[in-house]
Amino acid sequence: MTGSACIATYRCYDDKADFHKKAQGIAVGLTVGSWTDLPEARKAEMEKHLGRVVSVTVHEPENAAPGERYADLQIAYPDVNFSRDIPALLVTVFGKLSMDGRIKLLDIDFSSSFASAFPGPKFGIAGVRKQLGIERRPLLMSIFKSVIGHDLANLREQFYRQALGGVDLVKDDEILFENPLTPLERRVEICMEAARLAEAETGQKLLYAVNLSGPTSQLAHNAKKAINAGANALLFNVLAYGYDVLHELSSDPDISVPIAAHPAMAGAFYPSPHYGIAAPLLLGKLMRLSGADLVLFPSPYGSVVMPKEENLAVQAALIDPALPVHTSFPVPSAGIHPGLVPLIIRDFGQDVVVNAGGGIHGHPLGTAAGGQAFRQAIEAALAGISLPDAAAQPGSEALKAALDSWGYKE
Ligand code: 1AE
After folding, report:
1. Residues 372, 318 share a domain
2. Quick one: average pLDDT of 362-379?
3. Rounded to two decimals, what is the model's pTM?
4. Residue 25: which CATH number?
């Protein structure tokens, strides 16, 4: 972390630009507006507000094809220019600039003073593990599927079957909003009732991340309503609302349950090499600083794919010890099935949440078998046993059926 300025790193593509001049233009334009035209007395007053070019690294391969020439620019923005909130920081470093040609925001190095305004995740990896009583192994999360148009009895049954499979967390689908068939408080009550019934059979604790939705002005109230009804976790579509909303919720002393951040809308920001905000900042650093205990993002292996290098950089941001707040659980998601578990553990280690919707509910032997297949795959991967060998052992019918359906990768 830096002293009294936040440092933004950009990648800027341009076939002809003088990148040093461009960086200087950004440093001045996004802070004091103009510099060279100012009288000396005014310059002295404005000095403390002036952005500073930290570095300019030009990548200009010989015989560069059109569109290949770029530079990484680092600009320091004095803390004195913005209040201690993420909207102010983002608008300073990438407000108007985000619309000004081929430029992507890669990273922000927060000053220690800026970072100190954020308590971060209340629970983090260690806290979520403590809630569940699981010290080491990767956690397993199941996603409700087919929720719209279903009533409470149906959701209760779906929940029970997920819980019976041995999952550690169940999350609402992110598209389930407040609705007359399964209103928030009743949904929480019946799902937690199903959780207790399943726990009596499996002996396993479970967190239910209910989708927190509604107008921004109602969110804290809705969160407290859900918690009073028994909710022990929340799911939140952070990018649709903004990081500051997550920050408000996560730092509210009365909202004392883990918050899982869903990445909905993230594809509007990170995939282009030329525009937007890089995934490790968007889904890593900023989610963690804002207080997400768990962060979902597309994996390198499933149906919605993020390149592996980028994926691991998101994970690195979620657990980087340089940020003085709790770590957040990485949750690589989308199209995950039991045959991918060895890859997930190989790449992410044990501090990961294996998360699946279709890979659990679509299991040929049913939803409970879907959870069991994942738990068997996790156990095998941790023991260093190949999935086909594990599936051949007695009692591993769920894993065998999953591998027969979806195959496996090792
Ligand atoms: C990247 C988000 C994944 C998600 O929210 C979701 O619902 C995944 O579902 P499946 O596992 O692909 O069925």
Report:
1. yes
2. 98
3. 0.96
4. 3.30.70.150
Would the CB of 330 count as within 6 Å of ligand 1? no
Question: Distance from the CA of 144 to the center of ligand 1, in angstroms?
Answer: 9
Band (pLDDT 50/70/90 cuts) for residue 284 is very high
Pocket test for ligand 1, best of 173, 333, 354, 360 (most atoms within 8 A of CB): 333
Phi and psi at 12, nearest 5°, equal -125, 120
Amino acid letter, 136? R
- Point out the residues that are catalytic: 96
Task: Calculate how far, in angstroms, residue 140's C-alpha sits from the geometric centre of ligand 1.
Answer: 13
> Measured between alpha carbons, how far is 379 from 138 in angstroms, rounded to an integer?
9
Count structural domains, the chain.
2
DSSP lists the bridge partners of residue 294 as 260, 329
Residue 63 contacts by C-beta under 8 Å, 6 or more apart in sequence?
Answer: none
Assess whether pLDDT exceeds 70 at residue 365.
Answer: yes
Q: What residue owns the CA closest to ligand 1's atom 6? A: 334
Q: How many C-beta atoms surround the C-beta of residue 121 within 10 A?
A: 29
Looking at residue 384, the DSSP 8-state letter turns out to be T
Does the pLDDT at position 1 exceed 70? Answer: no
According to DSSP, the β-strands at 259-262 and 139-143 are unpaired
Establish whether residue 357 lines the binding site of ligand 1, counting it when its CB lies within 6 angstroms of any ligand atom: yes
Helical ranges in 260-340 per DSSP H:
279, 286-290, 308-319
Q: Find the length of the chain.
A: 410
Mark whether 198 and 281 lie in a shared domain.
yes
Among residues 112, 134, 116, the alpha carbon closest in space to that of 125 is found at: 134
Instruction: Let me know if 217 is exposed, middle or buried by CB neighbors in 10 A (0-12, 13-18, 19+).
Output: exposed
CA distance 190 to 35: 63
Do 304 and 244 share a domain, yes or no?
yes
Domain boundary, last residue among 96, 115, 134: 115
Confidence band, pLDDT 50/70/90 cuts, at residue 2: low
> Are 104 and 157 within one domain?
no
Where a domain ends, among 87, 115, 143? 115
3-state secondary structure of 73: strand
Q: What end-to-end distance do the CA atoms of the chain give, in Å?
A: 38
Same domain for 176 and 39, yes or no, is: no
The alpha-helical segments, DSSP class H, found in 108-218 are 112-115, 124-132, 152-164, 184-202
Sheet of 52-59, strand order:
52-59, 70-78, 5-13, 103-109, 276-277
Q: What pLDDT shows up at residue 43?
A: 79
